[in-house]
UniProtKB/TrEMBL annotation:
Pfam entry (one): WD40_RLD
Name of the protein described by the UniProt record: BTB domain-containing protein
Annotated organism of origin: Mola mola (Ocean sunfish)
InterPro entries: BTB/POZ_dom, RCC1-like_dom, RCC1/BLIP-II, Reg_chr_condens, Signaling_Regulatory_Domain, SKP1/BTB/POZ_sf
RCC repeats: 41-92, 94-146, 147-199, 200-251, 252-303
Superkingdom classification of source: Eukaryota
Record PROSITE patterns: BTB (PS50097), RCC1_2 (PS00626), RCC1_3 (PS50012)
Annotated SMART domains: BTB
Listed PANTHER family: BTK-BINDING PROTEIN-RELATED (PTHR22872), RCC1 AND BTB DOMAIN CONTAINING PROTEIN 2 (PTHR22872:SF3)
Signal peptide start and end residues: none
Keyword rRNA-binding: no
Length: 527
């Protein structure tokens, strides 16, 4: 399961859908668009769909996930996006698909027409196996398994690396100084491109007015050029922000250069740096650097799993690496970047690892390793004695007194008792509001205060004019004060309709007397 809980765009997805997500990417000018891939390799999109960037075949926004049929089963291995936005992916078969904004031919199809559905990028790539894609604001670059780089799209500053500033309508191999060299990693800033070679050298080209190419000057570069200042340093990863660059070395050191008005270089000041500068990370060995071309935020992860962040962090300028409580650099961008987009394709390993909570939920009512069963209304519920003792004082006392492998329950229904036992495994109530009254009775009987509160909240969601009096009576009977007050106010606010129900006609005399008295003080009978 991929944890996307920190990304608001996923907030409306039901838990059963979130559990299926294995890859995801959040993008857009306000982090209001997202793509995700499920365990079944189905691809879905959600969000505002600017320029058709969701690949759904239209320009309609969608608050509910819609499937992108053409991408299902493609096995996405790399995904990137621009600010148009346009989106590019590489599949496990080495194919490249692109869609969305195409005002500068960043889709690589030779036109300037926006692409509403994912289309294969074929020119000069059909015989190639692409392993990674990266997008700048309006240009795209792709890395092949042979270590070649292809680029296309917007080229006003030379970011396509063709030697000119003419836009490139279809993929063109970036050669020049990269000829006969093997590239292993690529990244794009807004208007620049970077490439790391298998020998640890790093090359840059494109816009350079903030020094983001690391050459020691501010002149744009129309073809790839090696960063000479890192001679002898073995770079293994590069990441680009809006106008700054981070490089990770094989020794775990981080270098930064470019724009620094938000402290995104982590140098302790806000001065731009046109040459790579070694960042002080308290001698911790780094294993990952992170930046995104849409923001001025930087992040890094240490070998011990700690995550540092610096730069523009929710409006603050953090000029030195700051230790966070996060376990992933992705969390930095979800919580502190502006916009809060993902800096790369979020992925989870395809193994069967389950958290403790997930494991417990999976074993509820499973007879395989249970050591106790409850018989309710002729049906069995399989549980584990140790867990019941840990989670419930009633069971701790009961199971310490008896040593049975089967217990019959007559006081509560099967539906209610199963919901109670499931709550002990999951902390959640899996009952509709109308059936939660029985669980409220049980929670009162077993003195489960938290369960009682959850029952009241569940029941509140089901209060209607027809059942308000019935629920009010139950709240009084089980001393559920919060629910009682809620039901009382509901009855007063819908007094005419409520007093015409059968439940009101059958109301207990003492309860009716108290209701009328309290409603009178509440001003319900004033003209």
């Amino acid at each position: 399961m991929l944890d996307v809980g920190k990304w608001p765009v996923f907030a409306l997805l039901p838990p059963e859908e979130l559990r299926l997500i294995r890859q995801a990417c959040v993008f857009g000018s306000a982090a209001n668009e997202a793509l995700y891939v499920t365990v079944n390799d189905e691809v879905f999109a959600i969000g505002t769909n600017c320029s058709g960037c969701l690949g759904l075949g239209d320009l309609q926004s969608t608050i509910e996930p819609r499937r992108i049929d053409v991408l299902c089963g493609k096995k996405i291995v790399s995904l990137s996006y621009g600010t148009g936005p346009h989106v590019a992916i590489a599949t496990a078969d080495g194919e490249v698909y692109a869609w969305g904004h195409n005002g500068y031919s960043q889709l690589g199809n030779g036109t300037n027409n926006h692409g509403l559905t994912p289309a294969l990028v074929s020119t000069n790539l059909l015989s190639k196996r692409v392993t990674e894609v990266a997008c700048g604001s309006h240009h795209t670059i792709a890395l092949t398994s042979d270590g070649e780089v292809f680029a296309w799209g917007y080229n006003n500053s030379g970011q396509v690396g063709s030697g000119s500033t003419a836009n490139q309508p279809t993929p063109r191999r970036v050669s020049s100084c990269l000829q006969n060299k093997v590239v292993v990693n690529i990244a794009c800033g807004q208007l620049c491109s970077m490439a790391v070679l298998d020998n640890g050298e790093i090359y840059g080209w494109g816009y350079n007015c903030n020094g983001q190419l690391g050459f020691g000057n501010n002149g744009n570069q129309h073809t790839p050029c090696r960063i000479a200042a890192l001679q002898g340093v073995n770079v293994i990863q590069v990441a680009c922000g809006y106008a700054h660059t981070l490089a990770l070395t094989d020794g775990g050191f981080v270098y930064a250069w470019g724009a620094n008005s938000y402290g995104q270089l982590g140098t302790g000041n806000k001065s731009n740096q046109a040459l790579p500068t070694l960042i002080n990370t308290d001698k911790e060995r780094m294993v990952e650097v992170a930046a995104c071309h849409t923001s001025h935020t930087s992040a890094a992860k240490t070998q011990s799993g700690q995550v540092l962040m610096w730069g523009q962090c929710r409006g603050q300028a953090v000029a030195s690496p700051h230790l966070t409580h996060f376990s992933s650099t992705d969390d930095v961008f979800a919580c502190f970047a502006t916009p809060a987009v993902s800096w790369h394709l979020l992925s989870v390993d395809g193994d069967d690892y389950l958290t403790v909570a997930q494991s417990l939920k999976k074993e509820f009512d499973s007879p395989e390793i249970s050591d106790l069963k409850f018989l309710v209304d002729g049906k069995c519920i399989h549980v584990h004695k140790a867990l019941l003792k840990i989670r419930c004082e009633h069971f701790r006392a009961l199971l310490n007194e008896i040593d049975e492998d089967s217990i019959e329950i007559h006081q509560f229904s099967y539906l209610v008792y199963r919901a109670f036992l499931e709550y002990l495994y999951t902390d959640d109530i899996n009952l509709p509001p109308v059936d939660a009254i029985g669980l409220l009775d049980l929670a009162t009987f077993y003195r489960e205060a938290r369960l009682k509160r959850l029952c009241q909240e569940t029941i509140k969601r089901g209060v209607t004019e027809e059942n308000a009096i019935t629920l009010l009576s139950a709240a009084v009977r089980y001393e559920a004060r919060d629910l009682e007050e809620f039901c009382f106010k509901f009855c007063v606010n819908h007094l005419t309709a409520v007093t015409q129900t059968q439940a009101f006609a059958d109301m207990d005399h003492n309860l009716l007397k108290n209701f009328i008295s309290k409603a009178s003080h509440y001003g319900a009978f004033k003209n």
